[in-house]
Amino acid sequence: MLKLFLCGSKMMDEQFKNIETILLDLGGVLLNVSYESTVAAFRENGVENFDALYTKAKQDHLFDQFETGAISADDFRNEVRNRTGIALSDEAINDCWNAILGNLPQERIELIESLKTRYQVLLLSNTNAIHVEAFSRLIHEENGIENFKALFHGAHYSNELGMRKPNSDVFKFVLDQHNALPASTLFIDDTLHHVEGSITAGLSGFHLDLGKEDIVTALKRLELI
After folding, report:
1. CATH number for position 43
2. Is there a single domain that holds both residue 214 and residue 119?
3. How many CB atoms neighbour CB 145 within 10 A?
4. Rounded mean pLDDT, 206-212
């Protein structure tokens, strides 16, 4: 059975008839993000080579450690200063790092509510302590949602789990927490190697190509809502 569904591929209803759980990514899929904005923000603060340390496709081990909670926010900021050679303040680093975060469109909140009437809806995000605090505040202020995790049947952040995508262990852990079977779970992410990791773990995976469509358009096209 083909388990990697690419944006733009023709889908048949029977390919999803056994789906009971939908596992969603956060950044890019639900929350708008701009990796370029963080690179630009650091550049404006004198860090010319930040894009050599961090991009969506490939990131330095420092960021992997931060995303699994292996280092603290203070450790992260100190290491950024060490690696860039620039004595940025904690506030400046936080502001630059959080420049990646955009808004959560209302239609995507409505999408989650709609999906919950038909499926168990879970969230799995590779994230870190600084971003969690920032996007939680942003969503509270802009969307009036005090507890973002409560939008889902279950929501999990890599920095709290000590595991991150695309490793199979994180998919197994999350599904086990919610009595979900890999064979009846569809994972949706805008990062291809994360989707490939979900397939290795036995899930069905859909790669959302943000250059072609957003999550609402994709799920309507696939007749999942």
Report:
1. 1.10.150.240
2. yes
3. 15
4. 96
